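Help!! Second protein's tokens look totally different from the first
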Amino acid sequence: MVKRKISLFIAVLMLFSVLTGCTVNELGYLNMSSEINKLTQYEFKNSTQMEISKLITGGEKNSKIDVEISGEANIDDINAMYLNMDVKIKVDGKGNSEPVKMIMADNKIYVSKNIIAEVSKLQEDFGFYGYNGLVAEKMLEELKDTEYIVVAEMDDIYGSVSYKENYTVLLESAKEYLTNAFKGFDSKLIKKTSNGYSMELTAENAVEFVERLVKYVSENKELVFDETIKYLENIYAAVEIKGMEGTVETEEIIAELEGMREDFYDTIDEIAEFFETGEQRLYAGMLDRSYIKNEIYKKGRVYGQSIEGELIYESIIFGNIKSESEITSKTVNNASVTEKTISVEELEELYGVLENKYNPVNTVELSWNSNDTQVFVGKIRLDGAAEYEYVQFAIIENRAYLPLRYIGEAFGEEVQWDDANKKAYVVRGTEKIDMTGTLIDSATMVKIRDFEKLGYVIGYEQEYDYSTATITK
């Protein structure tokens, strides 16, 4: 329990305190970061290269990932942010030939419809199942007048957040918290460069940093806790959060946190005692020559950031990263998406219809126990892709009955219901094939053998209470 608390607390401290301190370099780094974050209208670009060890991917060789992002943003009003960017991703040299556009506007997140073709191409290049190529092609034909897919409504993402304060007010509040809560603390991680500041974490100095940080917090726990509460009060006062259970009450949250004060003090003392044992230095040895370096700089009107790092565990290189970003102040006008759009739900429905038509299921595998109420169904499509799920079924006079519409439409059949005669049919052109069965909870259930009327081949085996069957088109 103690070690779990230690791990959690260290992670939180590293996350929130890596820029803390009040020495000249820390303040310089913090001020330049604040300058960058205060830009509310700007253009940006980023280039990132990653290499991931085959030990992680399970492939025959290391994987290389290249990401290119460029665009513009306007966050003057956090409640109505605007973002327009192009994204290109390549894995081992293969990736989207045309950038996928992502737009945040009108309180929605959009992606350009060419993501369908690009994802389909990636699947083909790397040989994994997902979008069927022919189905994706037919879907794009259906969407010839549509430009964007609505991925999400912003209000649906973790509830609704409304900001009462300007973006820069929140930044200043964060800066004030760091300088007040950690005044006098020297991270010893940040250095001045010709155009900015750099911060480098190695396996060794990261442990030393955490040791200094824990010691500082242990000796100043009342100050750190008080400033943290004050900062959270400012944040909650600046935002209104509405979730599933209504508005979050600031007073209740702060009171609950205040009630954790003694637990916080006790945990800090436990962590400090643990660090006195020196056990934490064993982890530095395991991470060997791992490092991550982050540099921020300003050249003229351009702010930049360079990141590079490598993860080495017990002398094995697991991966590395290099990233270059630039951000430049620019007037950016908010714009609405006026082109025709389709929601993700509508897109999935369209894909399902087209998939059943152009990449239908040719085999259904079934397995069940006579004591069960659900049958385990595997639907195998023409291209070999398989989908598995549990489906309600019924046992009548020792025979298994399955929902006709579920099975029939999976095979690409058209199923119709004649309400007057209480019968279901499979329609093929002008032919109507009567599928006798029984109505259970408004669903027509038919015997597995009834699918022989459609020309399907039925295979069936039973051993004690366990049964398996196949329906092949």
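Here's the second one for comparison:
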Amino acid sequence: MEGSTQDNVISALKEKYEDQILHMDTPYNFLTISLKKEKIVEIIQYLYNHPDTKLQYLTTLCGIHYPELNQIAVMYQLHNLATNTRVRLKIFLSAENPVTPTITPIFSGANWLERETYDFYGVNFVGHPNLKRILNVEDMIIFPLRKEYPLEDQRREDKNDTMFGR
């Protein structure tokens, strides 16, 4: 088979990692696959090398906080530039201790994306060559994009909530 399509990605994953798939969906025609976290690096490497997928470009990597589940997802978007096939992979980590291996050996560009995800969500990418804050100050003790922090100072008295539809 030449090239890559969403069906090729699904077939390739089911061929070797069907037991790792938690959920598949295609919101807005964008294949999204939730996976067990334990083999994520192995799966990404497999999709990179597989002749029917060749997902060799990392479009983005970010965190998503799900406070109602007490989890942080790490979302990887991979792309086959030749066939314009994209896939979104998600793994879910405990919000108390979000830890997953780095993918910098596969994609060197993941370096800054993983640092940003660490900086804002607290995800520890084990094996990362330089995991430290990238935008916030080093001594910051919180991870500001987690939804557990209020968006504004609740003690403010100088604003009129009716102006904001409250």
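Reply: Different proteins will give different token patterns, so don't panic. The mean pLDDT is 92.
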